[in-house]
Amino acid sequence: MQEHLKQLLFRLLSQPTAPFREQRVIALATAVLKDAGAPFFADPAGNLVVGASSKTDMLRLLRETSREPVRVFIAHMDHPGFHGMRWIAPNVLRVQWHGGSPVKHLQGSRVWLANDDGYGGVGVMRNARLKKHGWSIDAAEVHVECALPRPRPQANRLYGGFDFRRPVWKGGSRLYTRAADDLVGVFCILAAALEIFTKPARIRPPFLGLLTRAEEVGFVGALAHFELGWLQQARRPLVCVSLEASRTLPGAVVGKGPIVRLGDRRTPFDAAYSQVLTRLAEEVLPGRHQRRIMDGGSCEGSAATAYGFPTIAMAVPLGNYHNQGLEGGPDCRGAHGPAPEFVHLGDIEGQYALCLALMRKGLPWHNPWQDVRERLQKNLRDYRALL
């Protein structure tokens, strides 16, 4: 990976984020896109649309006469975390958790805090209460262990998550971080936009990126965008491409390459377009990619499918999904306790390479099964005499 892209990846993974508190990620993304001269704008829900400068510009692209589908790459900018609710003592903050979480070894676990004014603090979690289903935290107390600025930050402007030795660090080819899910996907979209829009092109590239908010609480940002009805106004083909960091499963292992995600826990994805992605992965990453239904969770590909958009998906295998100590490793507090997520640098490079490859002109979107059909027809010819 080129050094400037590696620096962008580390900067993204260092940003504080939580559902509905994606402002620091948004600020970095907009600064990077501005510096590169790449078009972007914010939709009414605060999602970032990359590859168009306005709603009008986006609709212009979608309404062009072309057989080339617009590739709509989707990744979310949030990660499970908490919101401050109220101060219950001079340095004790009552918090509400949003999204998945570890469920054991919570007492005394370290957390970070932030707000949009630049405050960065640390503390420990105490008296955590789980939701009734027992799968995640409901509420807790955060005991702040650093000097608070004066005046004390407003409780409802603070947010945070689990803290570790650093926001991101490298261990061999692995990256350990507070939040790989889904800042890795955000990185791939931004890196692709930098590659696409910093080179002169005779025709406009059929590229859109949708960086969404609040995915961890039910795809809220993506749903808000789909409800605008803009994508439904396309007069040319389009394909949604969900990018994720997804929980490791048998047949989907950290370090063995990005995953052609055939479906998630809710639904399979478009079979024809997934065949295009499969053949592309075989060409671009021979022996260095994986292929599986990733049913350990749901992704924004399900939301796009529910709205009727043809959808394909990729995923980077993710260790310690949602900071749960499922695979262990450094700074893990115990099984199902707080732990840094981890991903493999080579898997990220592979997913980025597949994103760029998907932008090639002339991929067989309209006849993806032709080569398979020709092999089957040869088999028929070979055995027809025995019918």
Q: Could you report the average pLDDT, rounded to the nearest whole number? A: 96
Binned, the helix content reads 25-40%
Q: What is the tally of beta strands?
A: 17
* DSSP summary: helix tally: 9
- Radius of gyration, rounded? 22 Å
| Main pleated-sheet profile | 8 strands, mixed
How much beta, percentage-wise? Answer: 25-35%
The top level CATH class name of the largest domain: Alpha Beta
Shape descriptor reads globular
The CATH topology annotation of the largest domain reads as Aminopeptidase
Class of secondary structure makeup: alpha+beta
Identify low-pLDDT runs: none
CATH architecture of the largest domain: 3-Layer(aba) Sandwich
Provide the domain count.
2
Could you name the key traits of this structure?
387 residues; 26% strand; Elongation Factor Tu (Ef-tu), domain 3; Aminopeptidase; 2 domains; alpha+beta; single chain; six-stranded antiparallel barrel; 9 helices; eight-stranded mixed beta sheet
